[in-house]
Amino acid sequence: MASQQRGRADMETSSGRGGMGRRKGPTDISLLQNYIHLRYVDLSENKLRDLSPLGSLTHLLWLKSCLTCHIASFATNRIRATEGIPIPRLGSLNLKGNEIQMISGLDPGKLTNLHTVELRGNKLETTTGLHLPKLKNLYLAQNFITHLEGLEELVQLTTLHLRDNRLVTLDGFSKSMKCLQYLNLRGNGILNLQEMAKLQVLPMLRALVLMDNPCSDESEYRMEALVLLPRLERLDKDFFEEDERAEAEETRQRRRDEEITGPPTPHLEPSLLTSPFSLFPSGNGGICPRGSD
């Protein structure tokens, strides 16, 4: 009976009776440290800056309204760091719309079930700090990311969303990312089509979004993507057709042949190939021997 009453009190406190409700807009959740048996907490759309008090909630299962999923939502606050989230049962973490500049403190030894992280709309400039080998879905759109770092540890990642950042190259992908299937790079600053060759280390990549990058305006954009990434099934919103695949294979074969034999020799008239004279004009309008002028 006591445990049932405690469970009801936990839910009432988390829904706002203890001042944690959305209407109050709290900036400090240190009071939660006194309620170590809390299981359900909704902290989204407030003005939080520090999540460390959550470390005391050793029984926390969920932080919004679903009783079957282990989801934590801190969306639309003013959080500046990702430290203080040691929730062992956590499966999905939503931190979109905050002020996070660097990822740190996400301990893979404690976040053993974490499979999805949502960090869009923050102030990240790099991807370093994601030491989460069991992560499957990562959303980093609408940040200020200029370079990719630390991705080699994301060995189970299947979805990576990097739309509307500031990438100009595709350095940073690793051959250890053997599970990545979907990559969204829309709205960055990729200039050179050959940057796509750096994605050849991703053997499972099937869907690539590169629209709204400067390189997507090139006339050979779609064909070059398929030449460089033959396993690709979809570019932007469109799937590749069989005739496109056939043309891409012909282009790959021609390039392989040229690597072996060199580029084709320019065609010259037979008379020019056997003539002892150069193509330098003589004073009388004819052809003079080389060096005679």
Features of the shown structure:
disordered C terminus, disordered N terminus, 293 residues, Leucine-rich repeat, LRR (right-handed beta-alpha superhelix), 2 domains, alpha/beta, 9% strand, single chain, elongated, 9-stranded mixed sheet
Helices, strands, pairings?
Elements: H1 2-17, E1 71-73, E2 92-94, E3 116-118, E4 137-139, E5 159-161, E6 182-184, E7 207-209, H2 221-228, E8 234-235, E9 238-239, H3 242-261, H4 270-274
Helix pairs in contact: 2-3
Provide a concise account of the structure shown.
The chain is an alpha/beta fold. Helix content is 17%, strand content 9%.
Report what the structure shows.
- By secondary structure, the chain is an alpha/beta fold.
- The chain folds into two domains: 116 residues, Ribonuclease Inhibitor (Leucine-rich repeat, LRR (right-handed beta-alpha superhelix), Alpha-Beta Horseshoe), CATH 3.80.10; 101 residues, Ribonuclease Inhibitor (Leucine-rich repeat, LRR (right-handed beta-alpha superhelix), Alpha-Beta Horseshoe).
- It has a nine-stranded mixed beta sheet with strand order 1-2-3-4-5-6-7-8-9, with no helix packed on it.
- Helix 2 packs across helix 3.
- The longest helix has 20 residues.
- It is elongated, with a radius of gyration of 29 Å.
- The N terminus and C terminus are likely disordered.
- Its main location: cytoplasm.
The major sheet is characterized as: 9 strands, mixed
Instruction: Kindly report the name of the CATH homologous superfamily of the largest domain.
Output: Ribonuclease Inhibitor
CATH class of the largest domain: Alpha Beta
Spatial strand arrangement across the major sheet: 1-2-3-4-5-6-7-8-9
Structural class assignment: alpha/beta
Instruction: Point out poorly predicted stretches.
Output: 1-23, 64-69, 285-293
| Principal-axes shape call | elongated
Overall structural domain count: 2
Pattern of helices and strands: HEEEEEEEHEEHH
Keywords: Cell projection, Cilium, Coiled coil, Cytoplasm, Cytoskeleton, Flagellum, Leucine-rich repeat, Repeat
Protein name: Leucine-rich repeat-containing protein 23
Organism: Gopherus evgoodei
Biased composition (Basic and acidic residues): 248-259
